Amino acid sequence: MPRSSPGRVTGSSYKDAALTEHIAQIDPPDVFISYAHNDDKRMPPATEGWITQFVEGLTNHLSRKLGEPFHIWRDYQLTVGARLTPDIKAQLGASATIVIFLSPSYLNSHWCDAEMTEFLAREVAKREDAGRAVFIVECDDVDRPEAVKDILSIRFWEPAPRSGRPQLLGFPQPVMNDPYHDRLGDLAFSIAKELKRQRRALRAVPGPPVVAPESVAQQPDREVTPRAPQSSPNTVEPATVYLAEVGEELEDFRDQIKRCLEQYGHSVLPRKSLPSERAAFEEAMRADLAESLLFVQILDEKLGKKLDDADVRRVRHQYDCAGSLAGPKPIMQWRSRQIELAKVTNEAHRKLLEGAEFVDDDPDGFKAEILKRIDKLRTPPPTDPRDEQGVDNIVFVDAERSDKAVADSIVEILEKHRFGVLLPSWSEEVAKVRATRKANMTYCDAVLLVNGSTPDWVLESFDQYRRVKKARAAPIKAIALWDGPPRSRCESGAAGRCIWFKEGCEAPRNRDPYGHKILDIGVLINCRGRESDPCSSAFGKFVETVRNR
């Protein structure tokens, strides 16, 4: 039957096994909800059970994130201890993803365990590319079954402030500012991403036509309409980041970082929990690190758990692997400023904390730094302008937009002396101008600043040079300040003067209005670009310095 809304939630309805299987084939669930019915009992003042509210919220999130029709299937009728019905088996076998609500009631329910075993056998054991086809919602602090031990989960419980007992988030009904909402959004984002991946793969490989079984012909009152393929954007993942596993107290912060990265289109590894045995642990990390651009780790004073077969802490070993497996990776580590290193008695862990690059209590600031680092790592190294222009030395002529004519006249003289030239951006966008100036100052051999109609331009350029200076591969050879005449005198062809310097040479303050170190003062060119005699020695000294230094 045609869909009337982007998201549908359906349940058990067909008793005919052949019809049930056919319906599952032509209208397979995108999400199969596997839960214990005891976890969906209504608790006042809520008007619906916790699972029902959860599924409703998940449907709303998926509607926004997918932007196309989808189908959620859950069972409304099965009681605890009952066997799997043909309807459940058909929907389970055809479902694109499954969401398992892990709780004491779920683990004590035989039919739920059967659902989980059957699905995992098909989706995980038989499909290496299952991706995030299985999603775990932790409703309580329970021991995980072996089948889902290594699957990453989203924890929907927190220790109670006083007793420390597990407390279900959003129970009996969600409230504002509850972490429940952020985690539900994270789950919806991950499911939507997996569904888009599967739909792209299905559209790329046409499947065989579905033939209705004989039992369908016996149901004239029930119209079955196959779903039409839906278009979805072919999203390209800009980068993959390895976000190290953490202890319980840092899980919320890790989730925030993961959410931030995914919102910017980046992929986050690992997709499932790392194994407990050392060899398997390292092999899993080697595979994930090979895909990753960057290793990110957040630390606290706790040592973390050990591997089962080695006297090695998981927290520390992730860091060691990032530095040795699959080629050393760029590493970003964060710890809180509140940690007292003197109280950390384990020497290896204390050294790990001491080596953290970012020490602060600003989570948002660290997230911003990660995004900046990704951009920097993904930016291809610029081609050397010397190679492009076939010259040995490059001079950056930095001028404000209104002084473009002056800059052009300087370029003519520099090119006569076989210098390569870089020019600023003439854009009206300040960000583009600054970005171009930063790049040019980083890779040029010398800078010539035009002090024409906007004196503040020169001051800003000097300030930016101070910031860029540390990023340069080699010290700059010389900086020249082209001190042009007032605009009112330009028509007369009056000469300007060039204050130029190289670092280490002091000059009297009265000869250097900008308070910088200078080498000499002399006329370089006039406004019309004509070289004059007084400039010969000054310009010759500039040329000599740039070429020979």
Question: Your description of this structure?
Answer:
By secondary structure, this protein is an alpha/beta fold. The chain has 3 domains: 1-234, Toll/interleukin-1 receptor homology (TIR) domain (Rossmann fold, 3-Layer(aba) Sandwich); 236-379, Toll/interleukin-1 receptor homology (TIR) domain (Rossmann fold, 3-Layer(aba) Sandwich); 385-548, 3-Layer(aba) Sandwich (Rossmann fold), CATH 3.40.50. It contains 17 helices and 19 strands. The strands form 4 sheets. The protein has a 6-stranded parallel β-sheet, sandwiched between helices. Strands 15-14-16-17-18-19 form a 6-stranded mixed β-sheet, sandwiched between helices. Strands 10-9-11-12-13 form a 5-stranded parallel β-sheet, sandwiched between helices. Strand 14, helix 14 (404-416) and strand 15 form a beta-alpha-beta unit. Helix 1 packs parallel to helix 3 (86-94) and helix 15 (430-443) crosses helix 16.
Detail the poorly predicted runs: 1-5, 13-24, 79-83, 126-132, 210-237, 486-536
Please identify the top-level CATH class of the largest domain: Alpha Beta
- Biggest beta sheet attributes: 6 strands, parallel
Q: Taking all residues together, what is the mean pLDDT? A: 75
**Which bin fits the share of residues in helices?**
25-40%
CATH fold naming of the largest domain: Rossmann fold
From the spread of the alpha carbons, the general shape counts as elongated
Report strand order across the widest sheet.
1-3-2-4-5-6
CATH superfamily of the largest domain: Toll/interleukin-1 receptor homology (TIR) domain
Roughly how many Å apart are the termini?
A: 80 Å
- Helix tally? 17
Domain module count: 3
Structural class: alpha/beta
Strand % is: 5-15%
